[in-house]
Amino acid sequence: MTPEDFKKERQRLGLSLNSVAELFRMGKHGNRNVHRWERGDTPLPGWAALIMEIISSGKVPDLSAFKRGAKK
Predict the structure, then answer these.
(1) Rounded CA separation 17/61 (Å)
(2) In whole angstroms, what separates CA 9 from the centre of its chain?
(3) What sign has the CA pseudo-torsion 53, 54, 55, 59?
(4) Does residue 53 carry a pLDDT above 70?
(5) Per-residue pLDDT at 68 exceeds 90
(6) Residue 55: which of 27, 13, 25 has the closest Cα?
(7) Could you report the per-residue pLDDT of 13-46, keeping only the tens digit for each?
(8) CA–CA separation, 27 vs 68, rounded Å?
(9) Alpha helices, H only, the chain
(10) 24, 18, 54, 52: CA torsion to nearest 10
(11) What's the whole-number average pLDDT of the chain?
(12) 29: which of 1, 35, 38, 65 lies 20 to 30 Å off by Cα?
């Protein structure tokens, strides 16, 4: 997910920078980090992209490959 994709999904969902920061439990000034991700000033963390993909698709990814004992 690119920073532009992240921003488009956030806007499509009707979420503000503050609401994303609150949803992601990023603390008091988390909205600043979200803004930096969207501008490309700070790399978009993989966890944030994954959460946004889950939220925007409404589907939980297949986790079977990540479970203990799973063959890779």
Answers:
(1) 25
(2) 9
(3) positive
(4) yes
(5) no
(6) 13
(7) 999 999 999 999 999 999 999 999 999 999 999 9
(8) 32
(9) 3-12, 17-23, 30-39, 46-57
(10) -100
(11) 93
(12) 1
Structure tokens of 59?
A: 């589907």
C-alpha dihedral sign at 60, 48, 22, 20: negative
Alpha carbon distance 36, 19 (integer Å): 15
DSSP 19-31: HHHHHTT--TTHH
Task: Of 5, 42, 49, 29, give the one whose Cα is nearest residue 17.
Answer: 29
Question: Residue type at 45?
Answer: P
Give how far Cα 65 sits from Cα of 39, 70, 71, Å.
33, 6, 7
- Beta-carbon contacts of residue 42 (< 8 Å; ≥ 6 apart): 33, 36
User: Which residue carries 């490959």 as its tokens?
Assistant: 65
Per the CB < 8 A criterion, the answer to whether 28 and 11 are in contact is no
